[in-house]
Amino acid sequence: MPRAVDGTRRKDHRKKILKLAKGFRGRRGTNHKAAKDAVAKALMFAYRDRRAKKNEFRTLWIARINAACRPEGISYSRLIEGLAKAQVAVDRKVLSDMAVRDAPAFKAVVERAKAALA
Fold first, then answer.
1. DSSP state, 1?
2. What is the DSSP string of 87-117?
3. Of 16, 85, 92, 96, which is most buried with the most CB atoms under 10 A?
4. Residue 3 domain-assigned?
């Protein structure tokens, strides 16, 4: 009876890499050598960008809040200062959502911040 040496480790590893490279274009999705590099890079970017996404969303929220509070006659930085003085604990995500979806509520928050600054 023949002796089993390697088992299926090599084939299984290649299948795993090619499965991760599914949907990649050209050789990167079908050729193990090219897929190995492409998958490594893709996993690296995925790891990095899961952290970068948090900063990008915060930047978006701040831009939305600033755009919504300018017509009310106050800048973003003054609004945040006023909210701190008024002890209004609303984070930027919620403020941004209010600015986009519920203008009257956002206006009330802005008025409260203005009153605290005066």
1. -
2. T----HHHHHHHHHH-HHHHHHHHHHHHHHH
3. 96
4. no
SS3 5: coil
> Which domain, by its residues, includes 96?
9-117
Question: Alpha helix locations (H) across 4-31?
Answer: 9-20, 27-30
Q: Which helix (H) or strand (E) holds 74?
A: none
Q: Give me the half-sphere count of Cα atoms (radius 13 Å) on the Cβ side of residue 73.
A: 4
The per-residue pLDDT for range 78-98, each reduced to its tens digit, is 999 999 999 999 999 999 999
pLDDT band at 9 (very low <50, low <70, confident <90, very high): confident
Quote the CA–CA distance of 91 and 115 in Å, as a whole number: 19
Residue 49: both structure tokens together: 């960008």
Whole-structure pTM value = 0.79
- 58: which 2 tokens? 């915060």
Q: Which of 10, 101, 39 is nearest to 64 (CA)?
A: 101
Say how many domains are in the chain. 1
